[in-house]
Each structure stands twice: as C-alpha cells, then as structure tokens.
Write a structure and sequence with these properties.
single chain, 511 residues, alpha/beta, Aminopeptidase, Alpha-Beta Plaits, 6-stranded mixed β-sheet, 4-stranded mixed β-sheet, 19 strands, 40% helix, 19% strand, disordered N terminus
Amino acid sequence: MGTSTVRSYVTCPILNIHILNNSIILKKSLLAALILFLGIFIVNTTISLLNAPGQLSVKPVSKYNLDKSALAENLARAIQFKTISYENKDSIDYQTFTDMHNFIRDTYPALFSNLNVSTINDYSLIFKWQGLDSLLDPVVLMAHQDVVPSGNSDDWTVPPFAGEIIDGFIWGRGALDDKGCMMSLIEATNFLVSTEFKPRRTLFLVLGHDEEIGGQDGALAISKSFESKNINPFLILDEGMAIVDGILPGVEKPVGLIGIAEKGYSTIELLATSKGGHSSMPPDDASINILTKGLQVIAENPLPADLDGVAKSMFSYLLPQLPLSTRIIFANQWLFNPLIISNLENQAETNALIRTTTAFTTFHSGIKENVLPVSAQATINFRLKPGDTIESVEHHVKTLIDDLPIQIIQSNAKFASNPSKISPIDSEGYLLLNKTIRQVFSKTIVAPGLVLGGTDSRHFENLTNSIYRFAPIVFTSEDLKRMHGLDERISIENYAMMVQFYIQLIKNTSN
C-alpha cells in the first residue's frame, strides 16, 4: 500500500466530518435567515396594522321621514329634460335647461322664497342659503345639470330620457351622472327648509351646466365670481367617487372612497408623413408604418407606476380589511413592491390608480384601399396622476419617438389640466364627510381615493384646499358600466339614502 493510499484513508473521514459540519452550519444559517425573514414580516405586519388609520366610531343616525315615491318621481321628471352637452356648443338645446329650471322652481317653491337663487352665464344655478354666523366660511355642495349623449336609444332597455320607474329603479341618462346628485341636494335642502332648520354656515348649492365639456362657462365662471367676492369655502364637495361594494379585491365591506385629488388631463396628437404612392409598391417608410412604430414604442413604455401619494394613503386605510396574506405583502413592500405593482397593473381600474395612463383614442389615415396615404395621424389621451405634469408627459413622448420622423402637431386639448392638489385628510371638512358617511351608511368603511376622471371642483382650487369628491351612491361592478353607458339607473332606495346623506351633512356642518 503506497503512502498516498494510506493518506487518503486517513483524510477522507476527516473531510466527511468537515462536509457534515458545514452542511449543519448551512442548514442552521438558512433556518436562522428564514426565522429572521418571518420575524421581519410579522413585525412589519403588526406595526402596519397598529399604525393603520382606524375607522371613526360613530352611532348610526335615525332615518328622516322621506316620501320615497315622491323623491323618485321628481328625479324621473328631471331626467326627462334632455340637457345634453355637445362639444359643438351650437348643437346644445339650451331651452331644455330653462325648462328644467322652471320645473325646479315649480316643484320647490320654498327654496326660491327662502334662498337667494341666481344664474351664471344664464344656465348655471347658484342657491345661497344665508347662515346664522356670517363670520364662518361657507359650505359649497356641487353637482351638474348636463349629461352626455345617450347614443342609440334602441340599445337601451328603457328609453334614455323617458324617466321611467321600473322594478325599483329610476331609469335614464343622468340618474348616476349627475342629476341624482343635483336633485338629492335640492331635495335635502328643501326638506331642511320645511323643518325651519337654519344653517350656521352659509350654504351654496352650485349646479353647473357644462361639466361634461369642461365647465368653462359654468364652474369656472362661478369660481371667478366667488373669488371676486372673497368667498373662501370651509368645504367644497363635488361628485367623483362613491361607495363601492364588491369591487375592491379582498375587501368584503362596502368602501366609501372620498376623492382627495383628481387626475389631470392631456392630449397629444402625432403626425407622420410620407410620399404616398400605389399600394402595389409599399415602402418601409410609409406614413402608417412610421406612426405605428411610434405608437408601439409609446405603448411598450408607459409612464412609471408607484404606490406613493394617494394610493399609499388609500391602502393604509384598507389594510385592516384585507386577508392576512395580502396584509403581509403590503406591510413588506421593501420586498414585494414589484409583485404588488404587477398585480395592480393587471386590472384597468387599479392600473389607473398607480400611474398616468396612456390611451390611443383616434387614428386617421387613408382615402382608398389601393392608395398609400401621405399622412397618418393619431391622438393619445393621458390621465395624469399627481406628480406628473402636462410638460413631463410631453417630454416622455418626445424622448420615445425622438429617432422617428414623427411630429407632435398638438399638445393639450381644451380640457387640459394638471393633476389637482391633494386635499388633506386631517381637515375638519374631511372628518365631517367621514363622519356623515359612517352615520348614514353604517356598515361602510371610509378611505381616501384618487378620482380618475375630472370634475367641476378643479376650478375652485384658487379658493380653498378643502375640496373633496364623493357622491353617496352605492356602486357594484355592474353599475360602473352604466356610467356614460347604456341603461343608466339608480335604485329608489339608494336615491333616498342620497337625500338622507345630504340632510345629515348639512346638519353636521352646522354643529
């Protein structure tokens, strides 16, 4: 037996012992790391739950004695007025607004005898109810009179402007957006007048007539009028968000989302040109080819998503309502942030919450099937989340298409606006809204949220930072499809609860 053979017999057991020891150490290290990670998860989750904002503890209020049938009939009647806003103002039938005003005057004479009623630009209405304490800043409650076109009436189950009450629902264009809010504000104020209630704070009902086309003649003009009179509201409440039931994944209870900000609006039009020619000899640089490449680059490179700002605030309120596994993930964003973002991106509604969205809305090109078009033009609509601006979005697009022969021929539509300011969630106005929701909709939890569209309230940022966007409407996923869509409707019960909410809110602002 050689020396090397003897050495191998001697050293192999020692080597095996070293390997065994190292294996034990490795397993212990992995176990320790696993325990450490679990400890971090548990600690972070516990801290997040302990620090999560709680829900206000309030007692439900007794319901007021309201005639639900009469409420429904009055809303149905208001729906019958075709107060449709069109982009081309020459197409608007303004007589229908005047007719609806006459209906309101005839139906609620007490409002016109007890409140000061005025108009702005002929068709926007302002009801002023003078408060007992003129030193207190006023409350402004907003809604709008106009509606979007209904499309083909034959596609509706019930004709869009019939204003019919069927199967416990009030049907028609405007039931949800926004005559439901407009009429419930009027009904609530009328009810309080009938009880000889006197508000401490002056109350303004602001009912714009052109919200669906930007609010330039309505809300903007009213805002300028208020500014000239040094009116700085204690609270402004407009439409925007609502109570969602069964829509937020993992949240079983209804959630009252109070919009503390709204997204901005920007439109960019792109143009690509070429020499055109016959379709039998298509070049690579045909105008449609060029523009398609640009659109593809833009689609594949959306603006970045994040969980900061309003989204972070919303999820902090929702955290205690989520399943344990989801709580752990949200409480440990240092590890799971990419996973959270990825999951939120998979749904259009939640994707819009965490980023500026990019939508290709129009494409124009070509005159004949065998002719290569000289030009191709596309429109891209962006809804800007707080933190992005019209300028930063345009820069993003320019950077992406810099190497392509594409021109930006228009940036900014007449609706263009940067995201709104973020209103505070610790203000007295927000807390009053929170309290009122909990009083009237007792099983609802409340959280701040981001309005994905635009409202008239954005025109009032020069007057106050206490602007909130919430309508006391309970939405299911099916109801969301009816907004600006077919078969718009609201249940009689929900509409009565809207009136209850506004009565309670007005009373709360006077305490």
